[in-house]
Design a protein that fits this description.
The protein is an alpha/beta fold. The protein has one domain: Alpha/Beta hydrolase fold, catalytic domain (Rossmann fold). The chain is built from 9 helices and 10 strands. The chain has an 8-stranded mixed β-sheet with strand order 1-2-4-3-5-6-9-10, sandwiched between helices. Strands 7-8 form a two-stranded antiparallel ribbon. Helix 3 links the parallel strand 5 and strand 6.
Length: about 290
């Protein structure tokens, strides 16, 4: 039996978008809650493969490919590569799946999307797992990301792809094994007749250079304060250059019940497969059921 079903749906502007739909494996749960997993800027639904398999023991899990990534259509209108448009796509997806209430799990850009979704429709958000992002984004990390997104040289073999992925991401995963680097890379590239090709539209980088585009929201503190009543777990990589420790401290001041865990030997962003990440997520979700 397949771990998930392919789900294709149409955005409001006519793009064919994709998500993985993992059914709840516990037949004794009549109406399982749904966890919606949303990836970072250059990533896709493959990021959540292990977490989704784990969570689907008790939850329905939906992991998305935002427009311009993975198996979703690329957008000819580059201005649409912004979180607000992605959020609209998420609400379209939830409507297509007939999901009324949802738990959000967002990595980096996906976390920004979660903040926005919760502010727009707070009553339908049962909880939020936020992976290495906050209401303000550290400039150091933004500059690092801007330096490589959409600018990577083409590769001709999987060995080359793995080497390139390692060079760019070694700072975030200093203890990765060779097998983990291969798995990471296989999720970032797709195979085209034996040649690895990055599984995202290079044009997603362009709106990041335009401060007016909304691709990188400047200040989400008012939004964060507006959703402070929603249960939230924040996960931070110990050496993250995107989510500063000072930002987490302010988040905890503004939301005293915020659950938080810091993951050792991780930068931006934890994979959510680390034992500490997994334990924090499991504890958080169990707490929502009380």
């Amino acid at each position: 039996m397949a771990e998930y079903e392919d789900f294709f749906y149409q955005s409001s502007d006519g793009l064919r978008l994709y998500a993985r739909d993992y059914a709840c494996g516990d037949a004794g749960i009549a109406q399982p809650e749904t966890v919606l997993c949303m990836h970072g800027l250059t990533r896709n639904s493959a990021d959540f493969a292990k977490l989704a398999k784990h969570l689907s023991e008790r939850y329905r899990v939906v992991a998305v490919d935002n427009r311009g990534r993975g198996r979703s259509d690329y957008d000819s209108n580059i201005a649409n590569y912004t979180p607000l448009i992605y959020v609209q796509d998420m609400f379209t997806l939830l409507a297509e799946l007939d999901v009324d209430k949802v738990i959000l799990c967002g990595t980096s850009m996906g976390g920004l999307m979660a903040f926005m979704m919760a502010a727009m429709q707070p009553a339908r958000i049962g909880g939020m797992i936020i992976n290495d992002i906050g209401p303000e984004v550290a400039q150091e990390g933004l500059d690092r990301i801007k330096a490589y997104v959409g600018k990577s040289s083409p590769v001709v073999s999987w060995d080359d792809a793995i080497a390139q992925a390692r060079e760019i991401n070694q700072v975030a995963f200093p203890d990765f094994s060779d097998a983990e680097w291969e798995e990471f890379t296989r999720g970032l590239y797709r195979d085209e007749n034996g040649v690895p090709v990055l599984a995202y539209d290079p044009a997603i980088a362009q709106p990041m250079s335009d401060e007016e585009s909304g691709a990188v929201p400047a200040d989400l503190w008012p939004l964060f304060e507006a959703i402070a009543a929603i249960p939230m777990l924040v996960i931070r990589g110990e050496t993250s250059d995107i989510l500063a420790a000072s930002c987490v401290a302010t988040m905890r001041d503004k939301k005293p019940d915020l659950q938080f865990v810091e993951i050792a030997n991780r930068g931006h962003a934890p994979t959510l497969n680390e034992p500490a990440s997994r334990q924090a997520i499991d504890n958080f979700l169990r707490g929502l059921q009380r």
